[in-house]
Q: What sequence folds into this?
């Protein structure tokens, strides 16, 4: 069974020779700065050295700006993208070239940044500060934040359309803003929920799969119950939900994860410890559809051999 078949059959709940795996990381800053050629080469090297079943195509073409939002009126200044914006054309080239080079071997995911992440990037502030600014301005003028989010939604639709048209098998939607210690339920429902569900519904009209990543610790999984997706992934090791509680929310979806992403066995452990941890993870997932992965991106400097070792262990099952 090849990698593509293994992933697609897993998503369909059909029997496979063994569970597929999918891990990802941000490539070094100097690689990103070198541009498209270097980023494509980095993905292909990663694919070859790890033997991953799923190759997630990273998206470092973010809606960042150095013009910091200060006043409520500043939200009107967020840039509207077009299909010809460099941010989009560069990502399209990366996607297209990797799809061609992959030649149907790995299951490919195109990264689409969630609306909150892109609104934060477009604010000119880091996410350690931007939520407080949004909440302050929302309390004074909710429509100003909702109008800014509408621009981000339009921009993200362009990214989504380009990604779906590239030949990938699915999208990896990196949702941010669901943390219970950052935004309350009312803000989430009023600003984020409807436009994000709309974006994911657009994916449902295609034959592509959608992987929903609910980023950060303390994420309130119940907020994402109605988000259309085929696969769910979150910070299991920092969550206040048990796996069984998560299953009660998401039901018969495919579950992605198992390993801690920034510390713990995969990052710091021996091969014996990795093997033991993998067995524990598989016992936790039990009879549910699952893909072995991590809570989020692995450290940039992690040895690819560690990921390849998991592939070897899975083939022994």
A:
């Amino acid at each position: 069974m090849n990698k593509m078949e293994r992933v697609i059959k897993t998503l369909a709940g059909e029997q496979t020779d063994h569970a597929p795996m999918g891990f990802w990381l941000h490539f070094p800053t100097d690689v990103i700065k070198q541009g498209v050629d270097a980023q494509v080469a980095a993905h292909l090297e990663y694919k070859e050295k790890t033997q991953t079943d799923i190759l997630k195509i990273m998206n470092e073409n973010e809606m960042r700006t150095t013009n910091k939002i200060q006043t409520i009126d500043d939200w009107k200044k967020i840039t509207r993208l077009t299909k010809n914006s460099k941010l989009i054309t560069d990502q399209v080239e990366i996607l297209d070239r990797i799809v061609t080079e992959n030649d149907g071997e790995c299951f490919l995911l195109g990264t689409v940044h969630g609306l909150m992440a892109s609104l934060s990037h477009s604010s000119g502030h880091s996410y350690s500060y931007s939520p407080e600014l949004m909440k302050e301005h929302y309390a004074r003028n909710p429509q100003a934040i909702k109008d800014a989010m509408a621009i981000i939604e339009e921009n993200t639709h362009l990214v989504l359309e380009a990604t779906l048209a590239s030949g990938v098998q699915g999208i990896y939607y990196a949702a941010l803003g669901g943390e219970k210690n950052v935004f309350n339920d009312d803000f989430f429902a009023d600003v984020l929920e409807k436009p994000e569900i709309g974006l994911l519904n657009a994916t449902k009209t295609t034959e592509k799969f959608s992987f929903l990543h609910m980023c950060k610790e303390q994420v309130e999984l119940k907020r994402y119950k109605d988000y259309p997706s085929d696969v769910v992934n979150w910070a299991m090791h920092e969550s206040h939900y048990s796996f069984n509680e998560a299953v009660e929310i998401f039901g018969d979806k495919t579950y992605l994860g198992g390993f801690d992403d920034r510390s713990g066995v995969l990052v710091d452990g021996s091969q014996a410890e990795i093997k033991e941890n993998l067995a524990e993870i598989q016992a936790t997932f039990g009879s549910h559809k699952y893909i072995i992965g991590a809570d989020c991106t692995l450290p940039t400097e992690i040895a690819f051999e560690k990921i390849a070792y998991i592939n070897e262990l899975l083939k022994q099952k």
About this structure: Residues 142-164 form the longest helix (23 residues). The chain has one domain: 3-315. The beta strands are 54-57, 107-113, 170-175, 209-214, 231-234, 254-259, 290-294. The mean pLDDT is 96.
